[in-house]
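From the methods appendix. Each design record in this collection lists the tokenized structure first, followed by the designed amino acid sequence. Records were kept in a plain field format so they could be parsed without special tools. The example shown here is representative of the layout used throughout.

RECORD:
FOLD TOKENS (956 positions):
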């Protein structure tokens, strides 16, 4: 050091040769000297403490360089990161003059207050004596006095840091302080010891090495913190113990308690405040713990203890490490318990978070971006937009430019998250003009989605694209699948999910707010979908098609849902020619899933996409080659999805050859001729019940392609003429010529008789409601029998041939070709069709009557060539007819078809929509069709014949 000094004093030329220019970041813009006590304002600008304090004392309230208004005129703590960098640079460049020492005193330094050299020398001598007492005295009290004296001199001496370090940072002295931590019980001494060790450790890594050489030393400091010495946590933080050791020392609860407190002013002279140190340690534990269950437990403690609000406050802390730690903790809270993002979003000040990018590492940068990305998954679109506007518009630096640069330099696995946040910020405005941010973001998402060498990047990209739909629950879970299923007509799951989510919410939204927010959500969804599908003329569809071929189930599922969503949106967005590109890429995948996937929800999603393709003539034409498979799938879904039902109507109306899509095949056949004729059949919950002329009732279980007999009962003594099921009570009713009505409970194993009602008449045709049974006796009229024992006769002047009972109204088809409607509650009778007189001794009875969806279907001989007529139940007007020429004896009606069972052993099948015959089934040329029934899901038709055979038929 002697030679540089002589060079400096020797002349200007020598100084110029030896001196290295100071980095501009190390020089105060006000004093133009190297920093001694740098402080970084909220604007991101750094100044010498004395200089900026003088600026503020003059009444200024703005940043001298940016001219931004300061929210607070209280200066933050020293920027120790910068101060250490300057000290390191000065060590490497001894030819440069160090800054003028300022010391740690809170008093402003002036020429009048500088300690004379003699005074300094005396104080140093006193310090050395105190150090000697600390290290050599065997009397505890003397050592304690020495510690207090060292702390006082540390605070009062205005000498360079190298002087203090040289004296105090030697291992024997550090160990002397540690001995005091173990032996003293004086709180002032312990606090003084911790403060001095903290200052030494913050400035000299060798001190940290000395303190961490023995595990018990670290444990001692931890125990002091747990016993209430809050400053000790700063020393623990500087010693950088591992996450595992922190967990073993059971420190989490104490750290949480400290995080909830407000930082005291008397600790501001420490390099880091206890609250900041506690938060950083907590973040290190969460980041370094390998046990997911333990991390989840800690995060739940953060949320339940109320510490989360204290962590939120730290987002605007003056120390970068504190803010970074706060981001890490809050991110893990959101990932563990999504509901807390609502509290975080409400209380956080986020505008300056991205400014931390300048001074943090790549891992911490990604945590900041992911935190913001997860935060804007709120269940209200307006709140998400507010946060995005805040991020974009506030802060010193350009948020979007910062994100763009980071995205371009981040690894594949992280770049989709960055791109997703960047794209959302860009879409705050109407996406009409070209945007480099938007193009770069979408390019990144698609590139990652197609990067087969990194499945994790593909999955992250697919998740990100789907999340851009912007539909989330209160806990931040994606509602994409539930909403798409709702659009496909399967809204039960969506309603159940939303009811559960609503119960979780702590606020109740007004319906007007909900309506407005739904409009905002729909507008956002259209905006996002438009820019995604428009990019490079539908390039995203190519990427999704490739993802659908992936062997990774998660990637396949995400690409499937994303493709379904975007194809659905094509039916809403203006057609710019992209629909054709989507069809080329995705149609075969959707058809394959619709045909073969065993999951009903997946098939419904595929149906939603296929429905979008039907909006164009070209799309409908492309579907033509798969019509039979599509129709089969739609029939299976129509009971659970209104969309499937509507699509069936569209396909039936547009398809030129209806017979091609209604082909039936025989599924199974059973010979029951030993029990006589099959007089009646009905279906309920996968079971088929048949009644026979010998009084037998058989219970069958319907398999994929066969009937399995599970029960045979012989309790009726004569013909079982009628079987009827009341679905609400799960009861089977049987009527017989033995003048009884039996009530059967339906179980998984079969049926058992609960009640027998005896009547005075043989039961020919039986229809049942919960409280009454209506049947046709041997004579005129219709008997109405109540389960309490009373009975009455209705329609006494008519001989009924068939009955139908729907919603309290009884419909009678009579021997004279007349049809009546009787209101059972009021007894009111209405004539639907008048009877006809006998011609040449012949009668023309109504043999079959069905009521379905407000229409009455009646079958019987006719004079005008229409053996089946269709009336409206509302006004009795004829709305259609079927020109069948066969002798019809029984009839069944489904949502799409009308089945006519004939005396000649033939079944005619007619399309309800077009009222045209689509197929004829030859059951048996030697037997009569006596009864038919359609199963609940309309998957198959059950036929009973006079030769004792039971057959099932389904779509081929």
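DESIGN:
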């Amino acid at each position: 050091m002697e030679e540089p000094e002589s060079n400096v004093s020797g002349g200007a030329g020598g100084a110029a040769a030896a001196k290295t220019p100071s980095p501009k970041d190390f020089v105060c813009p006000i004093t133009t000297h190297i920093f001694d006590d740098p402080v970084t304002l909220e604007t991101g600008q750094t100044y010498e403490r004395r200089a900026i304090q003088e600026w503020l004392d003059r009444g200024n309230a703005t940043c001298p360089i940016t001219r931004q208004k300061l929210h607070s005129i209280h200066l933050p703590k020293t920027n120790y990161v910068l101060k250490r960098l300057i000290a390191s640079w000065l060590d490497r460049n001894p030819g440069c003059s160090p800054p003028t020492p300022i010391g740690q005193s809170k008093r402003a330094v002036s020429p009048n207050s500088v300690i004379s050299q003699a005074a300094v020398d005396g104080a140093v001598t006193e310090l050395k004596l105190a150090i000697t007492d600390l290290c050599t005295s065997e009397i505890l009290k003397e050592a304690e006095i020495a510690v207090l004296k060292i702390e006082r001199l540390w605070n009062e001496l205005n000498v360079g840091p190298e002087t203090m370090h040289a004296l105090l940072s030697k291992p024997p002295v550090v160990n002397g302080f540690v001995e005091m931590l173990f032996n003293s019980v004086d709180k002032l001494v312990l606090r003084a010891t911790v403060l001095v060790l903290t200052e030494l450790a913050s400035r000299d890594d060798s001190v940290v090495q000395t303190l961490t050489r023995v595990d018990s030393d670290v444990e001692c400091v931890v125990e002091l913190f747990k016993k209430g010495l809050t400053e000790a946590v700063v020393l623990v933080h500087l010693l950088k113990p591992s996450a595992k050791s922190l967990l073993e020392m059971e420190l989490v609860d104490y750290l949480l308690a400290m995080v909830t407190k407000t930082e005291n002013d008397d600790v501001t002279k420490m390099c880091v405040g206890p609250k900041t140190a506690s938060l950083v340690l907590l973040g290190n534990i969460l980041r370094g713990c390998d046990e997911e269950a333990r991390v989840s437990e800690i995060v739940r403690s953060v949320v339940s203890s109320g510490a989360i609000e204290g962590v939120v406050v730290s987002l605007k802390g003056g120390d970068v490490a504190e803010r970074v730690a706060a981001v890490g903790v809050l991110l893990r809270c959101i990932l563990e318990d999504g509901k807390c993002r609502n509290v975080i979003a409400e209380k956080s000040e986020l505008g300056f978070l991205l400014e931390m990018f300048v001074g943090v590492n790549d891992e911490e940068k990604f945590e900041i971006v992911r935190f913001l990305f997860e935060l804007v998954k709120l269940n209200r679109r307006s709140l998400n937009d507010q946060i995005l506007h805040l991020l974009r518009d506030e802060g010193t630096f350009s948020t979007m430019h910062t994100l763009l640069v980071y995205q371009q330099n981040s690894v594949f696995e992280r770049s989709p998250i960055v791109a997703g946040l960047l794209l959302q910020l860009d879409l705050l405005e109407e996406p009409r003009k070209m945007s480099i941010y938007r193009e770069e973001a979408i390019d990144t998402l698609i590139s990652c989605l197609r990067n087969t060498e990194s499945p994790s990047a593909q999955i992250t990209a697919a998740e990100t694209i789907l999340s851009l739909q912007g539909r989330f629950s209160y806990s931040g879970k994606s509602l994409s699948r539930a909403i798409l299923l709702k659009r496909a007509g399967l809204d039960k799951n969506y309603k159940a999910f939303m009811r559960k989510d609503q119960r979780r919410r702590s606020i109740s939204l007004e319906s007007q707010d909900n309506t407005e927010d739904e409009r905002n959500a729909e507008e956002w969804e259209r905006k996002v979908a438009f820019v995604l599908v428009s990019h490079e003329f539908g390039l995203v569809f190519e990427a999704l098609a490739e993802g659908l071929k992936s062997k990774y189930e998660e990637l396949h599922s995400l690409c499937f849902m994303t493709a379904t969503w975007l194809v659905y949106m094509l039916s809403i967005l203006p057609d710019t020619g992209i629909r054709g590109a989507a069809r080329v890429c995705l149609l075969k995948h959707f058809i394959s899933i619709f045909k073969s996937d065993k999951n009903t929800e997946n098939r419904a999603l595929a149906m939603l996409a296929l429905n979008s393709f039907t909006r164009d003539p070209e799309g409908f034409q492309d579907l033509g080659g798969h019509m039979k498979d599509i129709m089969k799938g739609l029939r299976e879904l129509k009971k659970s999805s209104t969309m499937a039902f509507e699509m069936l109507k569209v396909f039936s109306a547009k398809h030129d050859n209806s017979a091609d899509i209604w082909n039936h095949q025989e599924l199974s056949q059973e010979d029951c001729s030993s029990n006589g004729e099959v007089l009646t059949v009905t279906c309920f919950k996968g079971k088929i019940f048949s009644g026979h002329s010998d009084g037998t009732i058989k219970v069958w279980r319907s398999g994929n392609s066969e009937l399995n007999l599970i029960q045979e009962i012989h309790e009726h003594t004569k013909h079982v003429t009628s079987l009827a099921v009341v679905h609400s009570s799960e009861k089977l009713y049987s009527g017989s010529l033995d003048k009884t009505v039996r009530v059967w409970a339906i179980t998984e194993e079969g049926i058992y008789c609960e009640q027998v009602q005896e009547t005075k008449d043989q039961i020919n045709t039986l229809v049942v409601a919960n409280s009454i049974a209506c049947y046709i006796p041997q004579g005129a009229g219709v008997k109405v029998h109540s389960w309490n024992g009373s009975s009455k006769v209705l329609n006494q002047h008519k001989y009924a041939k068939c009955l139908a009972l729907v919603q309290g109204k009884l419909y009678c088809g009579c021997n004279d070709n007349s049809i009546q409607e009787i209101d059972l509650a009021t007894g009111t009778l209405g004539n639907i069709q008048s009877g006809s007189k006998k011609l040449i001794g012949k009668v023309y009875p109504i043999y079959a009557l069905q009521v379905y969806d407000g229409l009455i279907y009646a079958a019987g001989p006719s004079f005008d060539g229409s053996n089946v007529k269709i009336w409206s139940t509302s006004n009795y007007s004829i709305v259609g007819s079927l020109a069948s020429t066969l002798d019809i004896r029984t009839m069944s009606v489904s949502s799409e078809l009308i089945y006519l069972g004939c005396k000649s052993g033939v079944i005619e099948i007619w399309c309800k929509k077009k009222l045209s015959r689509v197929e004829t089934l030859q059951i048996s040329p030697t037997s009569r069709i006596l009864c038919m029934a359609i199963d609940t899901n309309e998957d198959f038709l059950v036929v009973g014949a006079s030769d004792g055979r039971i057959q099932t038929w389904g779509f081929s």
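APPENDIX NOTE: The longest helix spans residues 511-534.
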